[in-house]
Structures are given as structure tokens and as C-alpha cells.
Amino acid sequence: MRLTTTTNVSVDGVMQGLGGPDEDRSGGFDRGGWAIPLLDPETGEYLNQVYGGAAAFLFGRRTYEIFAGYWGAMIDPTTNPIAAALNSRPKYVASTSLTDPQWAGTNVLTGDVAAAVGDLKAQPDGELLVPGSGALVRWLLANDLVDQLDLLTYPVVVGQGTRTSRSIWSTRGLLPAA
Hints:
six-stranded parallel β-sheet; 6 helices; alpha/beta
């Protein structure tokens, strides 16, 4: 499988808490929901295609819990292409603390996560999609497990939050260390 990350990012590099004001308040973040008003039909269709084309999904624990609470709780996931993909395909979570995932089709990767991800990547054909999951993406990049890095950049300055893009670029040797 080809491992692809998909990260929504503001022009100042923030990728945190785009779903809603209470989605991710870690570190005092209070600007959740910044991307939703900027999601145009073209971007929406692109995301439908990206999620719809995934054979499986890989999450960090925090992003998994956010997705499970929203996409996994939809009464009829067939009404939305992203929900349909997420609810019908395997989900893997890299976590040391998640022990009893409630979202159907979820497997927790424990122990040697690099080897487990390598095993997933060794499966023939398909896309292993990593939505969001900033800490996991940084770890995957540091362990040279990412095949493709997709950044969806939104025309907004958020001003606070986790700035993943600098970490991503410096991890790939594209920026000097700060």
C-alpha cells in the first residue's frame, strides 16, 4: 500500500482543530472551525475522492477519537462519501493508550509500530490514508514511512495552534533547523 498523508493547513502553518470550536483545545487552542467556512465545492469533491480512494486509514489516537465521535457516529454514513469510506474500510490506530476501540473495523497498532506500518505498506495495491494526525505524521516522516504528503492550504492566518508544516519541511530536509 502507498502511505499518503492529507493535512489541512492554514497559510501560517496551523493544522490543528479545523472541525469545530471544541474539537481540539490542547495547548489552549481556541480557534477550531477555521477551515470549514473556506471549504469550497472543489475542495470538498477532492476530499471525497481522496477518502473514497483509500483502501484503509491510519490515525493517531487523538484524531481517531475525533473522527470516531463524528464520522463513526453518523446514523446513515451512506449519505456522505467520506463517512461511507471511513465506516466501510479498515482503520488502524497508532496508540499506546487506546485499548478498546468502539468504531467498527478498527485495529490498534501496538508494539513495534514502524514494523506494523511497514507490514501494512507491504500489502499489494491500495492507498493507506493518514488524515490529519500531526504527531503521527511527524513520526512517520522521521521514520521514512510516508510515500506522499498532501497539504491542503487554506487562505487564512489562524495565528495560534500546532504548526505542522515547518516540522514537516524540516523533517524532510527542506528547511534548515530552527
